[in-house]
């Protein structure tokens, strides 16, 4: 089965398929303490990043959705990633059975409203093409991510403890409004 990964353009960003040449930057982003502090309990080693990078490609092939590389128009370097995955996190059927929205940006791209722009574009695509309920997980204290999730229509499901600390599990039953 072969699936085409769509390219999405916004006012400032391009969301596109990840390419082999993106891996080095992908691994750099996941090794950054500023990224790990918001998502993981520690920076991700390069080998784990490779596994995650390949898992993303497989997601598109098997489910018809996945994560895009996020880049500024007319720039080659990816700033991060956004999209949807089945995370299989063992949080229960009310979470694990739904596509999980994800957004990761390198520190230099944060605080420019680029995350909101990228996540909104990904959700608009999902609402047109896949449809249905989605979930997300946000680290406690990540106020920027909570604002983005709220603007997209996510509501609290419950709080849980993970190896990386307390997280908010949230759910979205479809587009807001």
Question: Quick recap of the structure?
Answer:
The chain is α+β, with helices and mostly antiparallel strands and 177 residues long. The chain has helices at residues 23-31, 33-39, 46-63, 93-96, 114-129, 143-151; strands spanning 8-9, 13-16, 67-72, 80-85, 100-105, 134-139, 155-162, 165-172.
Descriptors for this entry?
177 residues; alpha+beta; Aminopeptidase; 5-stranded antiparallel beta sheet; 3-stranded antiparallel beta sheet; 6 helices; 8 strands; 36% helix; Acyl_CoA_acyltransferase
Outline the fold blueprint:
Blueprint: E1 8-9, E2 13-16, H1 23-31, H2 33-39, H3 46-63, E3 67-72, E4 80-85, H4 93-96, E5 100-105, H5 114-129, E6 134-139, H6 143-151, E7 155-162, E8 165-172
Antiparallel strand pairs: 1-2, 2-3, 3-4, 4-5, 6-8, 7-8
Helix pairs in contact: 1-3
Pfam families: Acetyltransf_3
Organism: Sulfitobacter faviae
Domain N-acetyltransferase: 12-155
């Amino acid at each position: 089965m072969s699936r085409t990964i769509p390219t999405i353009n916004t006012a400032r960003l391009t969301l596109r398929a990840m390419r082999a040449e993106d891996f080095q930057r992908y691994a750099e982003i996941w090794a950054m303490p500023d990224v790990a502090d918001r998502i993981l309990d520690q920076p991700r080693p390069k080998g784990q990043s490779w596994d995650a990078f390949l898992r993303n490609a497989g997601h598109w092939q098997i489910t018809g959705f996945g994560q895009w590389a996020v880049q500024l128009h007319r720039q080659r370097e990816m700033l991060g990633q956004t999209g949807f995955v089945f995370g299989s996190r063992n949080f229960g059927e009310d979470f694990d059975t739904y596509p999980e929205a994800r957004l990761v940006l390198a520190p230099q791209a944060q605080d420019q409203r680029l995350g909101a722009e990228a996540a909104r574009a990904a959700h608009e695509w999902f609402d047109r093409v896949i449809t249905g309920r989605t979930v997300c997980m946000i680290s406690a204290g990540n106020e920027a991510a909570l604002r983005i999730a709220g603007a997209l229509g996510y509501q609290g499901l419950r709080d849980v403890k993970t190896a990386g600390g307390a997280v908010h599990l949230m759910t979205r039953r479809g587009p807001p409004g």
